[in-house]
Amino acid sequence: MELAYYSDFAVRLVNTEQPARGTDTLTSLDVARELFGTASQAARRLVDGDLTRMRSARVRLRAIFEAASEGDEVRAVDLLNALLMEFPVSPQISGHEYRDEDGRPKWHMHIADHAANAGAVYTATASMGLAVHLTEYGVDRLGICQAAPCRNAYLDTSTNRSRRYCSDRCATRANVAAYRARKRLENARPAEPADRIGRTAAAAQDSSAPADR
């Protein structure tokens, strides 16, 4: 698989927590295994201590998305570089699981599993994938959902770099909220009394009439 594919590892981990709602779904080894994918060898090595390691990495990955969302590219890159230094990867060429029409391997880059624990494997994989995505598509392709209180992370793959929400559901909710806010503002404006409206209209008519000579 291509290295950019691993960027979704970062999104999946960050979005196990909803800080504004006070919720956290990364509470069991089964949930952590789902983040890896059931076919992952590292997932089978998970122990309770890896949940703590992954939560710590989650905080640092979210900070990268938040810095990017705020337009602070240098900070986003610095934070990601710190993770890459702390959790290096060992890339290798793979292809045995994919074959072309002639039965020949489809060679591609793969991240080898050589880290000391499963939590480190996940962090290294997510960081490398995010780095590849960032350098290929730009820092502004990393975002935080603007539909409060969601705050999910997302990768912007739109053609015009216009994405602001993590999902269609959040986009719809934000649009409905904005519409309702506009209607409340319109309804809150005081209406002019009818007699005042009549006087204003009469004055306008008199001013337009020709003056007596």
Automatic annotation (TrEMBL):
Residues 141-183 form the Zinc finger CGNR domain. Residues 185-198 have a biased composition (Basic and acidic residues). Gene3D superfamilies: Jann2411-like domain. InterPro entries: ABATE, ABATE_dom_sf, Znf_CGNR. Residues 185-213 are annotated as: Disordered. Residues 201-213 have a biased composition (Low complexity). Pfam families: ABATE, zf-CGNR. This is CGNR zinc finger domain-containing protein.
